[in-house]
Design goal:
Number of domains of chain B: 3
CATH class of the largest domain in chain A: Alpha Beta
Structural class of chain A: alpha/beta
Mean pLDDT of chain A: 82
Structural class of chain B: alpha/beta
Strand order of the largest sheet of chain B: 4-3-5-6-7
Strand order of the largest sheet of chain A: 6-7-8-3-9-10
Radius of gyration of chain A: 21 Å
CATH topology of the largest domain in chain A: Rossmann fold
Mean pLDDT of chain B: 89
Number of helices of chain A: 12
Helix content of chain A: 40-55%
Oligomer: heterodimer
Distance between the termini of chain A: 50 Å
Low-confidence stretches of chain A: none
CATH superfamily of the largest domain in chain A: P-loop containing nucleotide triphosphate hydrolases
CATH topology of the largest domain in chain B: Rossmann fold
Number of strands of chain A: 10
CATH class of the largest domain in chain B: Alpha Beta
Largest sheet of chain B: 5 strands, parallel
Largest sheet of chain A: 6 strands, mixed
Strand content of chain A: 15-25%
Shape of chain A: globular
Strand content of chain B: 15-25%
Chain lengths: 297, 648
């Protein structure tokens, strides 16, 4: 499976002293770490440790009150979601967030939206918004040029559509989901939906892929498949992967570097072997009686 | 130069119909077409590449994988060099693979992907002769650093270089090939013992392909779906033999899971499938109709009833009244046409089935909606064709008349069927004893099947000759005949019957989880697993009714009336090829099952109503586990006045 010695590139993403508050609640306190290119990076921790919040900070969904995020050598106080997406950060969600009524292929194609221009993009936007195509008429400024070009079967837009479709098909081939290409994703079993979601993220050709509990709720066979795909993505495309996972077996098997969060603080960091042996980590997972807790109660 | 080998036929096709499609593959969601001239160029490049990698005339080359143009090309490229391709079943586990590769002394293997390479690497530890491995799909192969593993693209690049340095090499090698040369080794799955390597010559394959092309008027305009295992003789004769002789196009599906979608997209004009596939398709049609809206369902049942009445007659051009014809035409418009389209059979001109008996209901269903479905009887040793049903002489329970150029006879004592033709194999590789046992000096081949020729001159197969036994009450016991009758019921997936040398016949049955599961859902029978469903008394009741129906049928035939099934049990697991219970072509391995389930079988002949059964099972990844259950045993009612003569 994995080679004993893996080499990584430069730092792709660095977070420094991030603190995130919701009102009076501190979700993340003073957390720093760095993710290097081609790494499989895992964030673990007990429930409520702030793992998903951390991912949301990275892709700009949450805005931390303190700290900096340096992505591709570009430091900023906070990310914006569209910036994150445009600069090559893709993600999947803990609860599958697909367009349930659309087919697998269309879902994967939406991953190409940012790379599209002109009518192909509007077509998928319309599809997402359930808008009839007649809404083209509401774009009077673009009407003349685009609508005419678009209404022709041949032309530059056909080329563009074909190129995006090819990229989407390559993802479908890679994830071995050809047989469900035309199936509405709402009808698929959970494990396959997760795979389609990964497909949509891959269609963006991301540099950094954030996976929020990719194996949650899967049976053993589905987990093994998913592990295989995560490793293959990393191997074939050189994509850097940051994942959150509860299944310790999975984390220890596939990740290169692990950060452990507990109550919003980083309590340990290192290779899986180092983290596994760390007493703080063991305490966090198994629970330990705190003296001050005893006094208070 | 007469085209007496496949590489020569390829040359002829590239010359005469160069731009026409030769093979298609669905890749990235699109059917990619390769013409005959492109195919020839690819084959030539691969042949050069193989030669550059040291492949010599007479070397054996294993071909492992799903149906892919690259693998078909590798077969013909090997043949062009005078090497012998040995296709193996792509789903066989490493140990099965090892036997074949060792026996055939394979030195070179072309495989589809990483999965197959992993198996071959495992095999290689015990097969020192296997020197070079080639893969087509580079996915996941990055970290394999062994210097004897190459991608097919590397082989092709080496081929380009080799061609530049050796002009005329390919043509000269092809010209050296002769019709009497060995074309291919095909290993039969073998219901008993180890597989045997059937040696077929170009003469065998091409003569049978030519005969069938002429007989069935197959043209270069056909489209077929190449989806059956490449190691099976049928695929060799249909996808290479007939395709090269007639010049039509074979289409490789995208993956095994997309077979039905691909079938619909291609709409073959000529389709072959074993009965099991037709059964599965029909089952899925019925299941989906049960879930359809009421109007659709009523329309379907109304017109299907009409098709049952007149459909077959119309197909056979018999006299049918104008009113019925009109109603059938309406049915075609509303039901049969759309149904055929959904199944991918609207263009189909001929449908063949073989390998097992097909249920009369299934057979009539397809024929009644206007598909010209016919049965044939064949063997690997015969290069497929022994008998075939002529148009308008089609029956559900026969396998047809001898093909032109094939002689068929039945041994009067043993009832064994024998045949002789140009397609008869050369020998079993390195197995002179079996060759002599199977093939007589004057070319007759023992099929091992018992049968007889009926009053229409059609051959009827009842069972394996060695399996036909006698019950203690003196009546003939043909286990497969009973099993086939049982399997025609939708709830029964596999059945094994016992009775030779016993007092009565008994059956061990594994249920069809899809059909029974659907039934359970509609009848509010809750279950969590196959095992639990198979143990439900309500399911036992349903199966008992099926068995009593079979008993009633048997009672009508004086020779078989004594072989009615008195007791049965439902297995807690499906019979599975991975556990060695079935062959890869899903035939029951009787001897193995007798040993494996001996306590269950004893209980079928005892008086207890329940037995504990424990068997070892193999999972897909090769790990083993134990599957145990208490299995109930039930009596079934016998029909007819002749009660069983209980011995003692």
């Amino acid at each position: 499976m994995k080679h004993a010695e893996r080499t990584f590139g430069d730092t792709l993403l660095k977070v420094d002293n991030i603190t995130l508050r919701f009102g009076g609640v501190k979700a993340i306190t003073d957390v720093s770490f760095e993710i290097r290119e081609k790494q499989i990076f895992a964030i673990i921790g007990p429930n409520g440790a702030g793992k998903t919040s951390m991912l949301n900070v990275i892709n700009g969904f949450y805005h931390p009150q303190e700290g900096t995020i340096t992505y591709k050598g570009n430091p900023r106080h906070q990310m914006k979601p569209h910036e994150a997406a445009e600069t090559g950060i893709a993600r999947t969600f803990q609860n599958v967030a697909l367009f349930r009524g659309m087919s697998t292929l269309d879902n994967v194609m939406t991953g190409r939206l940012l790379k599209m221009s002109g009518p192909s993009m509007r077509y998928y936007h319309n599809k997402l918004a359930n808008m009839p195509v007649i809404n083209y008429l509401t774009y009077p400024a673009m009407w003349f040029g685009d609508f005419l070009l678009d209404s022709l079967y041949w032309g530059p837009y056909q080329k563009e559509e074909v190129a995006h479709r090819k990229a989407a098909e390559e993802v479908i081939d890679f994830l071995e989901i050809q047989s469900i290409r035309r199936t509405p994703v709402g009808r698929l079993p959970y494990g396959l939906q997760k795979r389609v979601e990964l497909g949509r993220a891959l269609a963006m050709e991301p540099d950094l892929l954030l996976l929020d509990e990719p194996m949650a709720g899967m049976n053993l066979e589905e987990k093994e498949d998913m592990c295989r795909f995560v490793i293959d993505v990393n191997d074939e495309f050189g994509t850097t992967i940051a994942l959150i996972e509860h299944d310790m077996g999975v984390v220890m098997d596939i990740s290169d570097h692990v950060v452990v969060l507990n109550y919003g603080r980083k309590i340990s960091e290192g290779t899986p072997a180092v983290v596994q042996a760390d007493q703080d980590v063991i305490d966090a997972y198994l629970g330990v009686a705190h003296e001050e807790d005893l006094i208070e109660t | 130069m007469t085209a007496d080998t496949f590489p020569k036929l390829l040359d002829r096709n590239a010359r005469e119909r160069g731009p026409r499609p030769a093979i298609r593959e669905k890749y990235l969601g699109i059917w990619q077409t390769f013409s005959w001239s492109e195919t020839r160029a690819e084959v030539e490049t691969i042949a050069h590449g193989l030669a550059a990698s040291g492949v010599q005339r007479g070397d054996r080359i294993a071909i492992v994988g799903d149906n892919r143009p690259n693998l078909y090309w590798s077969i013909v490229a090997a043949q062009a060099l005078g090497a012998i391709p040995v296709p193996v079943y792509q789903d066989s586990v490493a140990s099965e693979l090892a036997y074949v590769l060792q026996h055939a002394e394979v030195s070179f293997a072309v495989s589809e992907d990483q999965e197959q390479i992993d198996k071959l690497l495992e095999v290689q530890e015990t097969t020192p002769a296997l020197k070079t491995l080639v893969y087509c799909d580079p996915r996941g192969m990055r970290e394999y650093e062994q210097d004897f593993i190459h991608s097919l693209d590397e082989i092709k690049q080496a081929g380009e270089k080799h061609r530049a340095a050796n002009a005329g090499f390919y043509d000269a090698e092809v010209a050296r090939g002769q019709g009497s040369d060995t074309a291919i080794f095909l290993y039969t799955s073998g219901t008993t013992g180890n597989p045997k390597g059937v040696v077929l010559t170009y003469g065998n394959l091409i003569s049978m392909a030519e005969m069938s092309v002429e007989l069935e008027r197959i043209t270069e305009d056909e489209d077929t779906l190449a989806y059956l295992p490449m190691a099976w003789v049928g695929d060799c004769v249909f996808s290479i033999g007939q395709s090269y002789v007639a010049g039509f196009c074979s289409n490789c599906p995208e993956s095994q899971q997309t077979f039905l979608t691909d079938l619909k997209e291609i709409g073959p004009t000529y389709f072959f499938a074993p009965p099991r596939i037709f059964e599965n398709i029909l089952t899925s049609v019925n299941v989906r109709m049960q879930d359809a809206g009421r109007t659709k369902r009523r329309l379907f049942h109304y017109f299907m009833a009409h098709a049952k009445k007149v459909g077959v007659k119309i197909l056979q051009r018999e006299k049918v009244g104008a009113g019925d014809r009109f109603k059938y035409w309406l049915g075609e418009l509303f039901v049969y046409g759309p149904l055929k389209n959904t199944l991918g059979m609207s263009r189909v001109r001929r449908v063949y089935t073989a390998g097992e008996a097909i249920g009369p209901d299934i057979f009539d269903f397809y024929r009644s909606i206007g598909l010209n479905m016919k049965q044939l009887y064949g063997q690997t040793e015969a290069s497929v064709f022994v008998t075939l049903q002529p148009d308008n002489e089609v029956y559900a329970d026969t396998v047809g008349k001898a093909c032109p150029g094939v002689e068929v006879k039945v041994d009067p004592d043993s009832r064994e069927v024998l045949y002789r033709s140009d397609g008869v194999f050369k020998e079993y590789y390195k197995n002179e004893e079996e060759t002599r046992k199977t093939k007589t000096e004057d070319g007759w081949v023992h099929t091992g099947d018992a049968g007889f020729i009926d009053h229409n001159g059609h051959l009827k197969i009842i069972d394996r000759a060695k399996d036909v036994g006698v019950l203690n009450n003196g009546s003939m016991f043909a286990p497969k005949y009973l099993e086939n009758k049982l399997k025609f019921f939708p709830f029964i997936q596999e059945a094994v019957t016992f009775g030779g040398g016993r007092d009565h016949a008994a059956a061990m049955i594994s249920i069809d989880i899809d059909a029974v599961g659907n039934w359970a859902e509609r009848n509010n029978v809750s279950y969590a697993s196959y095992r639990e469903l198979a143990a439900k008394p309500a399911v036992y009741e349903e199966i008992r009714r099926n068995i009593e129906q079979v008993n009633a049928d048997l009672a009508e035939d004086p020779e078989l009336a004594g072989a009615q099934i008195a007791r049965f049990a439902l297995l807690h697991k499906e019979l599975d090829a991975d556990d060695g219970e079935l062959t890869r072509t899903r035939k029951v391995r009787r001897k193995f099952i007798n040993e494996r389930y001996d306590n269950l079988i004893e209980a079928l002949y005892g008086s207890q109503s329940e037995v504990h059964c424990e068997v070892e099972t193999t999972f897909e990844d090769g790990r083993k586990g134990v599957s145990a259950a208490d299995i109930a045993i039930m009596d079934a009612k016998l029909t007819g006045g002749a009660p069983l003569a209980k011995a003692g």
